[in-house]
Amino acid sequence: MHVLLTGGSGFIGGHVARALTADGHELRVLLRRTSDTRFIDDLAFEPVIGDLREPASLHAACRGVDVVVHAAAVLRAVDTRDFMLANREGTAALADAAARSGVERFIYISSIAAQGPAPSPTPEPPDTQTHPVSAYGRSKEAGEQALLQRRGRMQIAILRPPMVYGPRDTGLQAFFWMAKRGLSVRLGEGKNLVDAIYGPDLAEAIAALLRSTPRQLARYHVCDTGGPYDWNQLLATLGEAAERRLWIPTLAPAMFHGLARASELWATVTQSEPTLDRARVVEMRQPAWICDPTSLIDDTGWRPQTGLLEGMRLTMAWYRKHGWV
């Protein structure tokens, strides 16, 4: 199939690009002029210059493709309007261009943050009523709604991954950097539950969707099958991956909010993306970010191949090799 991929120069999108080219798809990647493509330059793909904020460029990018895989997103921001501009308005513009161009399938990599935290240790199904609690989650949920309003005849698949980690991820890089030095931090008692997915396994789930018979509309969770994990388990596994015994001080929520504000201030000064923002702190305080990938497994036959410890070891090895920790 001829596939348009957004976010292909980023962490998740780069792994998706690798999985799709390995499956033999003709890949077109939407790039800004400033995009850093060094991690996908060894792949066969057609670059097309465009921007989610420039609808005319999106119509040209969508012309002649069978499938759009939308991985581009703003994950951390100082101003909540930045979340909406990228994750809602950008998705709406891309969905409009795809529908007008006759695209048959649209796969949107959303987030469990769009659905909202589970009220108990039992995961809610993917088609439950959404109840996001953070600015980021609300923007991803708004992106889902914008896509559904503009889908036309397209077959839609919405994937909601939980915490995604792996080589080239900058979001959790600081935790690996600290772990290499025998340190980490914990919010409260560390009993909050989270599911996780290794980046290349998430990419394989996208590839599996393209190999399967599509539904007209499907919402899926995608995570490994070893969880959910509480934060104490995550940090213990991170210590194993780093081969260090970690010193883990407990920080109060107010201190995390303070760190987020400081990170946002520094990002404003340097005109960069904050390492930590208040939306993430809100999410970290929730009792359970958990998933059930059963429907995805049933529909596609996909299964995660990488357990948490193996994934963290592979990630740490990559960071060390490339001087990121």
Give the helix/strand layout.
Blueprint: E1 2-6, H1 11-22, E2 26-31, E3 46-49, H2 55-62, E4 67-70, H3 80-100, E5 105-109, H4 112-115, H5 135-149, E6 155-160, E7 163-165, H6 173-180, E8 186-187, E9 193-194, E10 196-198, H7 199-211, E11 217-221, E12 229-230, H8 231-242, E13 250-251, H9 253-270, H10 278-284, E14 288-289, H11 294-300, H12 308-321
Parallel strand pairs: 1-2, 1-4, 2-3, 4-5, 5-6, 6-11, 7-10, 8-13, 9-14
Antiparallel strand pairs: 9-12
Keywords:
325 residues; alpha/beta; 7-stranded parallel β-sheet; 12 helices; 16% strand
Provide a concise account of the structure shown.
By secondary structure, this protein is an alpha/beta fold. The protein contains twelve helices and 14 strands.
Gyration radius, in Å = 19 Å
Question: Strand arrangement, largest sheet?
Answer: 3-2-1-4-5-6-11
Number of helices: 12
Number of strands: 14
Structural class: alpha/beta
Q: How far apart are the first and last residues' alpha carbons, in Å? A: 38 Å
| Average pLDDT score | 92
